[in-house]
Fold this protein.
Amino acid sequence: MIRLDIGDLVNSITGDGPIVTASEVRSVTRLSRAGEWSASVPATDPKLANVGIKYYIDAWDGQDWIAGGTIEEISLRKRGAAGSLDMSGGDPLNMLARVRVRKVEIDGSAAPGAALLALLALLPSNWSYQIDGTLIAT
């Protein structure tokens, strides 16, 4: 049985339990960039009231995580008598790509240590590290 846990904007689980009526869950993993996921749920499921854009979804098959990420699109599709609600979005790597790091701490110190400098040395030659903490490809 596949279950969909829905988290709100602060990633707290919403509602009175997971959605367990998903008819389809799909996940696409990529090596070169973030992946994506999609799920379809019968439109009559009352737990869809807990779903919203920018909410977070985790799809589980038993104890195994199979897909998830931010809900970026929601659409209603006519499928049979009831129809289905289709949700999709980017995977957790997509979420990570949108996070801006302002301060890096290694071993409790905000100063760049040897580990950070070694990591920066691995960047391609056309990348540079800016003092504000951003990486720029030139």
